[in-house]
Amino acid sequence: MPVVARHLMIHGRVQGVWYRAWTVDTAHRLGLVGWVRNRADGSVEAVVEGEEAAVGQFQALAHDGPIAAKVARIDATDIAATPFTTFEKRPTV
Hints:
- The chain has helices spanning 19-30, 52-62; strands at 3-13, 33-38, 44-51, 70-79, 87-89.
- By secondary structure, the protein is of the alpha+beta class.
- It has a single domain (14-89), classed as Alpha-Beta Plaits.
- The protein has two helices and five strands, in the order βαββαββ.
- It is globular, with a radius of gyration of 12 Å.
């Protein structure tokens, strides 16, 4: 299966609701690699990479996120794959 990578900007009530922890758990469960971090503007940014079906499933699940989140929209852009080895939580920028 081909590997795809997608950059996601997740907007709404997504900070202070365990969204990053949910993202890490969900990415691990789906066999994805990449990273997630909070942004100073209140959004969450992520890069997810893996099999196309798993990336699509992750993106669909990200519209709900953890129970306390209220996702308004996700801006998604396909990007070149990078050789990540795990999925990690990064510091806020």
